[in-house]
Specification:
The longest helix has 11 residues. This protein has seven helices and 17 strands. The protein has one domain. By secondary structure, the protein is of the alpha+beta class.
Length: about 300
């Protein structure tokens, strides 16, 4: 549908929506979110063969978010294939952030066939992999150029402007989609979500991997992408955090109500409130040695000729 300008000076834009997708065309961009049901057996077989990994219990192989810039022909996407392709599918090494619980190793080696009704007789031998599905996936581009480059830490224009994102601007488009989720054999939850919103002057995307291993740790990896339509600059921020389970549990408003621990947005808020010397410190905290404990800001300037 065409949305005309109003007294709030909304830019010309077009929003299309179907049962499984939602897109917006604005300022030479087309942003599309696809959100469908769990992949079928044939799709799962194909994806599993490609990523060489036992897939999460809920894998949404057809879900995606795509940012497409018409003038340059550049697109950037998030999908399950990309996210799972960055999960370690072999014996874990230092830096992979391996997590151990009572029977994690045995369980990871013998996952139950998801189509079986018998949890014992249908055990199948699987190759080693990261049973928590930890991924530092930050999306992927359709072209090798232009490339992301380190931002200038002294230039405030090369960081995501929180003042812009917290302004009460109209939301012209909002969508969210899930790429995968696994309950880790009742040991917690591993999930990857992508959310995007478009305002009259900019768009903002947040892709978040969230991990909760009960009584062990919380882990999170975020990718944020920001673009102001009046500029050719894209800003990408990636960051990871990790703390012991007890550290977050101690922040519960009501110690007798653990429901917030299953709310990834609540957990993210707590992690962001805590000092990085706690949440991004491999010498203390959960002490897994995970290489994702960092914050990086990068920029990219778009060409306007295909």
């Amino acid at each position: 549908m065409d949305v005309p300008s109003t007294s709030t000076a909304l830019p010309p834009h077009n929003v299309d929506e179907s049962a499984t997708s939602k897109s917006i065309s604005i300022h030479g961009w087309k942003i599309t979110t696809v959100s469908t049901s769990i992949s079928n057996a044939a799709e799962l077989d194909s994806l599993q063969a490609e990523v060489d990994l036992t897939l999460p219990e809920m894998t949404f192989g057809n879900n995606s978010v795509t940012l497409a810039h018409a003038a340059s022909g550049w697109t950037y996407a998030f999908d399950a294939r990309g996210a799972l392709g960055e999960v370690c599918n072999k014996e874990l090494s230092p830096g992979d952030g391996g997590v151990k619980v009572g029977y994690a190793e045995d369980w990871a080696k013998t996952r139950t066939d998801p189509d079986s009704t018998s949890p014992v007789s249908a055990m199948i031998v699987a190759k080693p992999y990261d049973w928590t599905y930890t991924t530092m996936y930050a999306g992927h581009a359709s072209k090798s150029k232009p490339k992301w480059q380190a931002a200038d830490p002294e230039d405030p224009s090369q960081s995501i402007p929180m003042s812009t994102l917290t302004r009460p601007d109209p939301i012209l488009y909002y969508a969210a989609t899930q790429l995968f989720e696994d309950e880790l054999h009742d040991n917690g939850t591993s999930t990857y979500m992508v959310r995007v919103r478009v305002m009259p002057t900019c768009f903002f995307l947040l892709a978040r991997f969230s991990l909760r291993v009960d009584n062990v740790l919380f882990r999170q990896h975020d990718t944020r992408i920001f673009h102001e339509f009046s500029s050719d600059l894209l800003i990408r921020e990636t960051a990871g955090w990790e703390v012991p389970y007890a550290t977050i549990r101690a922040r519960l408003p009501n110690p007798d109500d653990r429901a917030p621990l299953t709310d990834t947005q609540w957990v993210a808020g707590i992690l962001n409130e805590m000092p990085t010397r706690v949440t991004q410190n491999n010498r203390s905290g959960a002490s897994t040695g995970w290489r994702g404990l960092m914050r990086r800001i990068e920029i990219m300037r778009l060409d306007h000729d295909k």
